[in-house]
Each structure stands twice: as structure tokens, then as C-alpha cells.
Amino acid sequence: MKELSLPATGTATTVTFAKKLPKAYDALLVPVFKGEDGLELAASGQFSEDIDVSIWELLSTVGATGKAEEITRIPAIEGVDADFIVAVGLGDSEKLDDETLRRASAVAARSLKDVETAVTTLGIFGIQPVTEGSVLGAYSYTGQKSETGSTPVSTITVLGEGKTAKDEFERGLIAAEAVNLARDLVNAPSSHLYPESYATVITEVAKTYGLDVDVRDEKKLVKQGFGGVLAVGMGSSRKPRLVQLRYQPKKAKKHVSFVGKGITFDTGGISLKPGANMDQMISDMGGSAAVIATAVAAARLKLDIAVTVTVALAENMPDGEAFRPGDVITHYNGTTTEVLNTDAEGRLVLADGLALASEEKPDYLIDCATLTGAQIIALGDRTSGIMGDADFAAQLATIGQKVGEQAWAMPLPEELTEALKSPVADLRNITPQRSGGMLSAGCFLKEFVGESITWAHVDIAGPSFNTSAAYGYTPMRATGVPVRTFVAFLESL
Ligand code: BES
Ligand code: ZN
Ligand code: ZN
Fold it and tell me: Where do the annotations place Mn(2+) 1 binding (predicted)?
């Protein structure tokens, strides 16, 4: 891919597919299990029984247990053309699932510091999860740091046999690379990523993957009445944009429209946020990054589904020109909103995006946003809240759980919709009570969804950005959630 106009991207380990063991490589990754009677080594079929037994003996001697995600490094033995062997723990063999494989493959990839080439034989248990885990686990972001210390592994080869294995590899690679693209976008600091520069990056992405792109600049937004995006962007010298991407295959069976929140920095505006951790608000465009990456995956997978992506980009700043509490704004569809808190800005830009996307009457409409701190209070840091049409929300949550992106369906209580009525406008952007903050944001958005369109709203405030140490295939900072959920949903159609 052509380089994007970003200050930095995460480490790009190349993950490739091969049917046969290469001649020479640095590290051989082998799967081990924790059996009732101790360590079990799964025969990869690549080596003679003698060699497998010797590997098992050596691993047992150094105390490998086969516990999930345990990594044990031993010197290579006669007959293995590597420098060393890495045993990757997969836990109880009877309980092995895709998520265990993904996580273990990721931990293994991360452990391969200062290694050039590695070959993994874990694919015998599932090519796609091993590929995804390797690509996702090798990712780390050091941005513009001059000295980064150790270098990550440069190539991981996934061994597999036959056409289906190759297909599974491709699907895993495309999905995981899409996640890494979303991570790159979210990790970019707001010094470098602001509405105009973000629109440039999106245009570059579109050109690379043959997607149609349309950028509405500030003038066009004024002319067409995008009052939500304009109000939120008003306090910044870096003016807002609304960008649409389209993947339009010839014989599309369905049309899925995604809308993403793209606040490139959220200070809260005049309703200023407290200082602690405000830096994390560089990630307030995580929803937009996820839906852009999803469109890229759809195109690369050549799915026969039309995909439209609408992202509303603005920087929420306090300033002499900023919008104020008490202001009344008019959205793209004519609905008016009384702004009671300028920090509840995501719903204002999404409202315009949802109204625009609804005009085409897509079969499915999905919005994605780092929308509320209340999501984190309700569900924690790792579980997305999904609202909207109850069946559809439940369907997406189930897909999320299956691909390892935890998600839970949440209701849209009618009393909260009632509480969003304003005495001076059609709506107000917050309710008088703090309770149910994630849900009232969802209720607000619902008002902008066209009639009889199947809709879901995904709140990723917590899951999009990992503020603690890396775990499984989740690095520090941007996680790329819920790209794989969206890709899996498109594939399911
Ligand atoms: N971007 C925030 C939500 C957020 C909080 C994302 C923490 C990630 C981590 C959003 O714009 C916001 O500030 N929401 C307010 C809404 C409130 C004023 C009703 C919130 O959640 O506090
Ligand atoms: Zn906010
Ligand atoms: Zn925000």
C-alpha cells in the first residue's frame, strides 16, 4: 500500500502463507497443550516422530506446562533448520477454540523480538485465527519515538495445506490488516490528525483500494445544512469535514451503510473536560476509523455487498467562536437540538451523518462511536454496548463475542427518549438525569434514523483504546475494535 500521510504507523510484520517449511528460518513455533499427565506436544506433521519426541523431551526438561499463552524458548535440535524453537501454550486440548488460538499466536508473535523470520505450525488447528493473532499481536505503536529498543519480528510464515487453507489465510490477513489500519488512524495524535488532514488520509486509503470518496468541506457543509457537524467544529481553527466512502460491487445483494464519529480531539468544548487523561481524547475518532477500515476489508475481500461509509470529522475546542450550552442547532434533516452540554458532541455530528445515510434507505445502518463515559461505567473497558433494533443489536453482539470482540446488547428505554424532549427545540442533547447515559445517547441517535431502516448503534468508548498493558492480541493504545465484528457481519450476509 502507498504510504499514508500519517506521522507514523505501527510495526508492520509481514505475515505470509506457505505450504512447505522454508529452507532456513530463525524460529519454529510449535503448539503445546496442558494435558492431565503434563505437557503434550501436538504433532505438526512436519517432522518425524523422533524429532517431535526430542522436542517434547527438551520442553519438559525446561518445565514447559502447555498452559494457554505460555511461551517457552528452547534451542533447535538436529533436523530442525531453525535457530530455536518456541513452544506456544494452548491450554486444555479439549477446550481449544479460535480465541485461544488467536491470543496464543499473538503472544507468540510479540515474544519474537529481534528475530528475523519465524514459521508457525499452529495453523493445523485453524489458519484464520492463527493468521489474525499473528498480524494483530505483532503490532505495536511507538509513533515518533527516536529509539525504540528491540525490533519486532519481520516475517511470520503460516504453514497450511490446500486451497481452503490459503483462503482462510487471506481472510484472516485482510481482517487483521484492517484492524491495524484502524489502529494506525486512532494512534495518530491530534497535532497531526485533524479534520482536513484526516480527510486527506481517507482519500489516500480510498485510492489505494479503489473506493469512491467524497469530501464535503466547510463551505459545502454550510450550504447543505449540516448544523451538528458545523456547531461542534466551530470552536477550532481546523474546520470540520464530512467524508463518504463507497464500495460498490456490480451485483450487490445488500447495502450496508456505516456512520462513524470522527472527533479528532474532544476537549469537551465550552463544557470543558477535566485535565486528567484528556490526552486519550485523540481516540475520539475511533468509530470513524473502524468503519473506514471495514470498507477497506469489504473491498479487499470482494464481498458482494455495497458498503457506504459516512464519517463526520470535527475538532471539539473551546474558543471565542465555539458553540455554547443553550445554543439551538438545526441538523441536516431539519430536526432542531438544544445543546445543554458541548461535551455531548458525538451525538450531534452522528445525527447529521445518520440523517444523510438514511436518505439512501440502506438495508442495514450501523453507527459506531466512542460516545459515552457511561458505556465504560456500565460495561467496563472491554465490552462494547450495542443498541438499536433489538434483534439486530443482539445479532451483532453475538458476532462480536464469536470473533473475540466482547459486546453486549443494551436497551433503548422509552422514558429516556421522553427525557430528551426540549421546551425550545425538538430535542436536547442530554437528559436532566445522569442515569443511563449510554442509553440516552442511543435514544438521541434513534431520532435520526430513517423509518423502517434496520439500525444498530455501537458504543466503543472503552474498548477502542487500551490504556493499560498489552494482553492477548490487544496492544496498548488503539485496539481496532470492532472492525472484525463488522467484517464478520458483512461476510455473514
Ligand atoms: N468522547 C466522550 C466519551 C468518552 C469518554 C470516550 C471516555 C472515551 C472515553 C464524549 O464525547 C463525552 O464526553 N460524553 C460525555 C457525555 C455527557 C456530557 C452526557 C460523557 O460521557 O461524559
Ligand atoms: Zn465529548
Ligand atoms: Zn467525544
Answer: 266, 343, 345
